[in-house]
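Appendix B.2, paired examples.
Example (i):
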Amino acid sequence: MAGLRVVITDTSAIEALTLGVKKLPKGIDKGIKRITRNIRKTAIDRMKNSTPTGRYYKIGGKMHRASAPGEPPAVLSGALIRSIQTEFGPLWGSIVTDREYGPYLEDGTSRMAARPWMEPAIALHGEEITDDLSISIQEEMP
């Protein structure tokens, strides 16, 4: 029976690989943070910069134009925008709001069509997500 024996006399490749594996989580975390912050910014910018086409109504003595179904939520007080935060842990990132109505706007209800603000922001960053992770990992590698 023929055999093959490999003897490595230069351990620098193994040391580089070991160092790379140790730095991999740091690169992934860095990428997740970058992506999460970019998506949050896009969600906020879409709300701030959209031109609502929904109905007009009076609130607090002022006229307000609501968003139409499918548009980002129209900004009334800015409370939703101010409440959108990022949270991070090892190898994860999250975009959250403490406003009870945030998910209702995103998904709609039985009485109101959705005014999505998060999913479209994620969709706009689709290909970027993989690219950002790759770049962040490469930046950490030896």
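Example (ii):
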Amino acid sequence: MKPSAPFRGVMQKPSINNLAILYREEGRYAEAESLFLRALRIREQYLGPEHISVAATLSNLALLYSNQGRYVEAEPLYLRALQIREQHLGPEHPLVAYPLTGLACLYREQGKCAQAELLFQRAMDIREQSLEPQHSATAETLHEFARLQEVQGSNNEARDLYSRALAAREQKLGKHHPKTLETRRCLIFLLHTMGLFEEAAQFEIVQIERTSVEDRKNLQEK
């Protein structure tokens, strides 16, 4: 179905959806919600409720609600996005892993660990089969799956997943990217919990380098 001229006009760049994502990342949740809902209405009106483009807006709105702890509102949106993508793309397509991971994170936060683990495993299988090992999306699923294993007390499994996510993020994003720092910080905390202090210290050295780099940069700017 080819988008009509009115649709192209209302969704032109900078798009409503992209602006909503920006507001969500800035913590401007009320403004983001208003724009996501507007984008959803437009896409459903001009493209139909089952169009593949609708799934992206559903997932984005679901993530916004999840970030606010509004899990009851987020769950049906993720489920609908998952159903649309599976219908259009098939159950093993890489884009299917996005609502799967979002839904798994939601269930983890609700304490539904068994359901979350099944979804994380499925999302990981899809991404490892269809994407390169260092892909940022694969690393994201590894990191979030590690958090679930940590919550469940499966420390060895969490350690392995964090380590794999860290290796992927260091290679793809660099040692001092915020997401890399986040994964390394989680791994360091876990290693301390496990009593593996020497191993933790090796990662702490790299983590401290970030502070040294920032300090030098600040001094140069003064």
